[in-house]
Write a structure and sequence with these properties.
Largest sheet: 4 strands, mixed
Number of strands: 9
Protein name: methylated-DNA--[protein]-cysteine S-methyltransferase
Number of domains: 2
Structural class: alpha/beta
Mean pLDDT: 82
EC number: 2.1.1.63
Catalytic activity: a 4-O-methyl-thymidine in DNA + L-cysteinyl-[protein] = a thymidine in DNA + S-methyl-L-cysteinyl-[protein]; a 6-O-methyl-2'-deoxyguanosine in DNA + L-cysteinyl-[protein] = S-methyl-L-cysteinyl-[protein] + a 2'-deoxyguanosine in DNA
Family: Belongs to the MGMT family.
CATH class of the largest domain: Alpha Beta
Oligomer: single chain
Keywords: DNA damage, DNA repair, Methyltransferase, Transcription, Transcription regulation, Transferase
Length: 288
């Protein structure tokens, strides 16, 4: 079974949900395997292939104590000097992300006259729809069973013309989740060094918050208060939370790395299970 298939993610998510709900009882490998109707051997192999660590080790990354430690370690947000608008380059694990924000006039036009090409792809965290305008990522939205990709894209860019063109946007997916879509090692090597362009449509405040999220390194966490302080508005943590909840580009703009200052993970636009999976997966990659 492919460790990056939607079915695998659904099984992993059920196991993670059981792990976090019953962490104090230290569930056995057999219990976890039973939650996904698999043998211990196959579950252990599948989980380790997906996460890079054992279920027991993975569960440690999801504890409140671990989250608090990562918060104390902190992301260097407060030391970052933000430029006007959205220019410059953000570092995201092994990717360079170049970010461009639409002008106020373009924001009002809501994509009028623009072609939004899209496709649906697999990832370690389930299916997602990827939309691009002029070769720049404009939408990355993780899908639930009843989601309609076209409706999601239209909400983000109401006046854009939609065109399903999987092959046109596939090269971008090979940079986002290279082990999922790239078919050869050389193909992954070729795509990994190219800047990954992102096009954002949002208010000036939203753009500022989303840019701040790009400064949180993989394996680190930040609180809503820390993000508010980083953008120079320390009393705006509630508005920051609203902006984070409106992030149109999941994973690449890492809103999943923002948690409550208490160490609790809090909500996530694409589901708390998915947030837990991402945080544990990233912690395993950094620690490993």
């Amino acid at each position: 079974m492919n460790a990056n298939s939607p079915t695998t993610y659904q099984q992993i998510a059920r196991a993670i949900d059981y792990l976090t709900a019953n962490f104090r009882q230290q569930p056995s490998l057999n219990e976890l395997a039973e939650t996904v109707n698999m043998s211990e051997f196959h579950f252990q192999r599948l989980f380790t292939e997906w996460a890079g660590v054992s279920p027991k080790k993975f569960s440690q990354y999801l504890t409140l104590e671990h989250a608090k430690t990562r918060l104390r370690t902190g992301a260097p947000l407060a030391d970052t000097a933000y430029e006007a608008g959205l220019s410059g380059t953000g570092r995201l694990h092994d990717l360079f992300v170049t970010v461009e924000g639409v002008t106020p006039g373009q924001f009002k036009q809501a994509g009028s006259g623009l072609l939004l090409s899209y496709g649906v792809f697999d990832s370690p965290f389930g299916n997602y729809v990827l939309g691009a305008i002029n070769g720049k990522i404009a939408v990355l939205h993780f899908l639930n069973d009843d989601d309609r990709p076209e409706a999601i894209l239209t909400r983000a860019w109401p006046e854009a013309t939609l065109q399903q063109d999987t092959e046109a946007v596939r090269p971008l997916t090979r940079q986002i989740f290279p082990l999922t879509d790239a078919t050869t090692t050389s193909e992954r090597d070729i795509t990994s060094d190219k800047p990954l362009p992102i096009l954002l449509r949002g208010s000036a405040f939203q753009l500022k918050v989303w840019e701040a999220l790009l400064k949180i390194p993989e394996g680190r966490l930040a609180s809503y208060d820390q993000v508010a302080e980083a953008i120079g508005q320390p009393t705006a943590s509630r508005a920051v939370g609203t902006a984070i909840g409106s992030n149109p580009i999941g994973y690449l703009i890492p809103c999943h790395r923002v948690i409550k200052k208490t160490g609790l993970f809090g909500g996530y636009r694409w589901g708390t299970n998915r947030k837990q999976a991402m945080l544990g997966w990233e912690a395993a990659r950094v620690s490993g």
